[in-house]
Specification:
Elements: H1 9-20, H2 22-29, E1 33-39, E2 42-43, E3 48-49, E4 52-58, E5 61-67, H3 77-97
Antiparallel strand pairs: 1-4, 2-3, 4-5
Helix pairs in contact: 1-2
Length: about 100
Amino acid sequence: MWEGEMATPWDDTLKTLIRTDPQAFVDWIAPGAHFIAERRCELKNWKLEVDSLLDVTVGEKPMLLHIEFQSRNDTDMGDRLLRYNVMIKGELVNKAKSGQVLR
């Protein structure tokens, strides 16, 4: 969502689907990865919220799986995902440095 946009029923429905069976989405998007936990991620400084951010492992390596859904074509989606992921990393690094739990 862009700043000022409201979550839609579409967003809420897809977030509910992911939360119902996150491993199914992990299998679909990243075959071989294993779901560990969901992270609630609101990018506070930007008033943005990701659709889904999951802790997964691939082999023994922990990773984050970021899922965004679109109800229409968005030619800027690649740029948005890059921006979101840079901000997510910044938020997680800041939380880790301040001693906050990263979930």
